[in-house]
Each structure stands twice: as C-alpha cells, then as structure tokens.
Amino acid sequence: MGIDDIRDQPTAADIRLVIGASALGTMFEWYDFFIYGTLAASGIIGRTFFPAGSEVVQTLLAWAGFAVGFGFRPLGAVLFGYLGDRLGRKYTFLVTITLMGIATAGVGLVPSAATIGFAAPALVLLLRIAQGLALGGEYGGAAIYVAEHSPPGKSGFYTSFIQAGVVGGFILSLAVVLTTRGSVSAATWGTWGWRIPFLFSILLLAVSLWMRLKLSESPVFVAMRAHGARARNPLVESFTYPGNLRRMAVALFGIAAGLTVIWYTAMFTVLSFLQTTMRVEETTAQLITGAGALMGLGWFILFGRLSDRVGRKPPIVIGYTLTLILLFPIFWAIGVAANPGLSRAAARAPVVVAGPACGYSPFAATQADACGRLLDYLSKKGIAYTKARAEVTFVSIGGAPVADQSPAGLDAALAGAGYDLAKVRPSPGRIALILVAILMLGALSGITYGPVAALLAEMFPPAIRYSSLSIPYHIGTGYFGGFLPFISQYVVAKTGNPFAGLWYTMAVVAMALVVTVIGLKEPRTALDAGRAHR
Length: 534
Prior knowledge:
Elements (H helix, E strand, L loop, with lengths): L2 H4 L5 H31 L1 H6 L5 H17 L1 H14 L2 H19 L5 H4 L2 H29 L7 H29 L2 H6 L4 H4 L1 H12 L6 H8 L7 H7 L3 H34 L4 H14 L1 H14 L2 H26 L1 H9 L2 E5 L14 H12 L3 E5 L4 E4 L2 E2 L5 H10 L11 H22 L2 H8 L5 H17 L2 H12 L6 H18 L4 H10 L1
C-alpha cells in the first residue's frame, strides 16, 4: 500500500472548494500569461515595445517576447517543483500566483520604447521571464493538488477542470480586452487603454489569494510528511529514481509537446490567422475565437471524465491521429468561410514573384534586392505567393506580368485581380461555419489535453511528483508550444504560404504520436478505475 492509498478522503464540500479554487486560480494565472499573446496578435505589443520599422519584424519580435516567457517555464518548474515536493503543494502555488500577478501588472506599467528606448523591451522581457518562472510552478501544483484530493475513478474528471481553466484564461483575456476596448475611444485604447487588462491582474490576484488561502494542504503530502516519506532532494531523485527518467522523457516528447502545439494552434494560430492572413476585422476575429473557445470548454471535461472509464492513453492517441488527418482541412475551411473573396482570388489569380535570387529575410528592415522587397511587401499585405527563378525580377498575377511594381501599382493590380485587402466581417452563416471549425479544433485539443493532468499525476511517485511532472511538462509546453507562434509566423513570412506554418504542428504531433504509442504505459490507477467502471 502506497502513500496515495492511505490518505484520508476529503468530503464533497472539500472537493468542491479544491476544484473551484484550483481551477479559478489556474484560469486567472493563465489569463495573466495569455493577455500578452492576445495583444501581440493585434500588433499593439510590437508597436509599443518593439518598434522596428517593419510590421513583420515587429510581429516576430513581439512573438519572440511571448516565447521568452515559455522558455523560462522549465526553470520555474525546477525551482517550484523542488519547493512543492519539500514544503507542500498549497504554499508553493500561493507563491507562484503572487509572482504572476505582480509581473503581469508590471507589463502594464512599462513606458513605451518611444519614451525610454531600449529599456522598454528589456523590462518587458524581464517581466515575461518572471511570468514564465511563475507558470512553471503553477500548473503542476494545481494539477497535483486536485489529483491528490480525488477519490478512485474520479481523477480524470476532477482534474479536467484544471485543463478547462487554462482555456478559461484565454477566453477571459479576450473578454477583458474586448470589454476594455469597447469602453474607451480608439485613440485612448491605442495610447494607454490597452494597459488596463494588464493592471486588471491585481484584482484577479486578490480573488485568487482569498480563495487559495482557504485550502488545506494536500492529503497525500500530509501523509508523506507524517510517515517521513518526503524526498531529500526531489530534483536529483526525479532523474535517479528507477524508471523515472524514461517516464519523464515520454511525458515531455509524447504528452506535453503534442498536446500543447494542438492547443496553441487551436487558439492563437486561429486568432492570428483570422486577423492577419484572412483580414477579418480585429474585434470580430476576437469575438469569433473567444466564442469558439467558450463553446469548446466542454470537450475538456468530457474527455477527462471519459478517461476515467477507458484509460488515459487511448483518447490521446486517437486525438493525435485525428489531428494529423484533419488539421489542414479545418484551416482551409476557416479560410474559405472567413474571406471567400480573398480565397477565390488566390485560387483564380495566384501571385508569382520571379527573380535571379529572390532572397527574403523576415527580420531585415530593408531587403537586399528588388525581389526581396517585393516579397516583403506581399508578406506585409498577407498575400500568398510562390517564387520562381528568372533573369529579371517581376511579379505576375494570374499569369499576367505587372508593369508597375511600385506599391501603388501592385495594389491596383491586386485589386483588379479581385484581391480585396480591406478588413472584412463575415456573414452570420460564415461565422457559424468558422465556429464549427473552431469547435472541431477544440475537440482535438480536448481529447488530448483533458486526461493529461490525471495521467501525469499518476505517472510519477508522490515524493517526487511535483518535480517529475512539472519539469517535462514545462519543457514540452515551453519550447515546443511557446515557440509555435514565432516559428509558424516565420515560416509563413518566408514561404508566402499562409498555411505553411501548420507543418510545424504536424511534425510535433507526429513525433508525439510515435512516442506515446511506443513509450506510454497506462498508469495502474487509471487501469484500475477503468476496470471498476466495466
């Protein structure tokens, strides 16, 4: 009999408080982390803190700042995982949520680059690092805390609310941005109103602390402390405990990497794709994405609960497989529904840029040659193009060369070929089609993400659970997922294909599927729960 088996069982009221406080705290903390990404997708972060003379470069630098926070999540996992295994689950995630709230509010107080120069992006990056450290300790603490309160056969269901809380943070970030922007003038929003969502974090921090201070320590940790079963050095033992290194590798490459790229593709890639590539009006794109995410919350609960019956592994394997089959068709459907005129123009009159070299660097403020400058111009416009070799540089649209290759001449030629570059608002029927597509992406995310908190908690021994769970999870989500917007945006800018960035998601999911099928063993507790249901 292990520590997991000798704990006292909490009451129904205790469970409700545990789930509510943990899920809401997770939602608020991810709100803090996602508010940056929500505003980065709209371009305001790049304009304010990373001015570079090029909209493409600004966007890439803003997404690089987003990735920095993810890059420091593994360090936070090491630090807070150690504290969580030694000092307890409750007090560790009280510290993480406090650090996150303060850092998020700090971003809202940093002056613009126009005011303090390079100090502005430097301060923002330091605060993103603090956010990454905090988030590295939050998810593992909340997931383990709920799992260690769950009775047999309920862990998947109860921890699925933590997974839904992550999505709730994204939805809340969109809701606060839309509400704030709708409450102030456009000029006020552009100058300082966008800072309000960051400062709103202080209120969320107060609510989170109030709720979490009511919680008691995890019964599993209390039992470990009473029996002298705590690890002396959880970090070292995570890598030396028999079989644990293999489990951590599977958790990293098979679980965390796969689920996170699906999730970020379903949320941030969709939002960016609608706003930039398909030129959907900003507020409309945010409303559609937020509504789709809200409608898809139930997937996480459904598949978390289902995993208590069928096991953790089958839903994840099925979700990865379906993602490889359906990802491109879903995005093609979104593109056609969001801006059918632009989609028809791209199919009817494809743009080809030809030249002797046609080198293009998305990071360069000024391109080296005429062909590169043409590619840069089309990338900024979000126009899909293909490249060809030729002795002289020229652009053809629908097979017809464009005589005037100045910006005005290109705009006129594109308009004549049916490319309407104005911002659009899809009709209600087309919005419904987009929502169905986002709901399908939400299902792919829910089936792979819903069972994961229970799975990861069950994979590792209680004494080193916080560290062993947090380290691979945050390396996987931090690097494979955190860099997704940057990498996919770079690939799109480099290739001229608005769908090319999805290949990054496909490659990571394919890797995760192989690792999961070969390396993941169904945890004993999940198998026992499934047998009990049958």
